[in-house]
Automatic annotation (TrEMBL):
Name of protein: Exodeoxyribonuclease-3
SUPFAM superfamilies: DNase I-like
InterPro entries: Endo/exonu/phosph_ase_sf, Endo/exonuclease/phosphatase, GPI-anchor_lipid_remodeler
Positions of the Endonuclease/exonuclease/phosphatase domain: 56-293
GO CC annotations, alphabetized: membrane
GO molecular function, one term: catalytic activity
Amino acid sequence: MNHMEEIKGYSRGMAVLVFFMAALFILGCGDKGETPVPDEDGTPPSVTVPDELKIISFNILEGMKGDRPANYDNFVNWVKTHDPDILAIQEANGFRQESLEQLAARFGHPYVITNLKATDNYPVALTSKYPLESRRRVTMHVSHGAIFAKLKDRDFNIVVTHLWPQSYWHTPGDGLGNDYRLHEINVILDSTVRKFPGEPHWILVGDFNAVSRRDFSPEVTTNNYWVTDQIEAEGFKDAIHHLHGTREENAQPYDFRYPGRRIDFIFASQPLLGRLIKAHPIYDDFVDTYSDHPAMYMEVSLK
């Protein structure tokens, strides 16, 4: 073999090596479960979003710390039992993108969006059976932030948030807790529904650390309703109130376990209200044991 043949042979060998290294890299990335495995022709598999969507919003209490010793087995089984298409999480403490992907894969949610902030240990997150388009992560001038996402190829926007928890202070002693929470919801509304007025179908979910006047008798005027009043002024209505009535509308609204102290909501925009199928809190042994909040459940038609 002459010198030129040696060079050609070496080049062919390197090409083969590069090919196999690339193939191994692609296979390794696929193992993470971040995207579905493509079809034989290289195109992603088709995903059909159902005409009816099930959504749960849940504050999981500091990263589901009570179930951490059991490797989150109870949490995984609970999510499988209720089988939501989208799970909106508050207090995803301790989870990074990869670790939440690994957990969500155990209950059949291959799509995960996290909202990590260097200055906050209480992030929000979304997991889903179906592709989500991450449109914005709201992290500036808010405490725990928000995620704004869209169900891919469908006219359906979801915003999950967790507002400031203290009523009486933002900085200790300033008496501005309620003011700061109102500021937060306006930052979030400015970044989402107000920015896209031509998009009609929205849900706004999470732990708002604020009560709604609709859960109280009309004569109760001592509570601070700034946040929920502002959300309603944008055209939203709580899904449970829409389907079950309020204390203003009837004498027997939904029988909340903790009447008057509910701070978790699923708000829907006006065009979605007529498509609501179900809406209620989830009270069960798992929720009682592993969180200090009830989960909020909603079913909605996308037709």
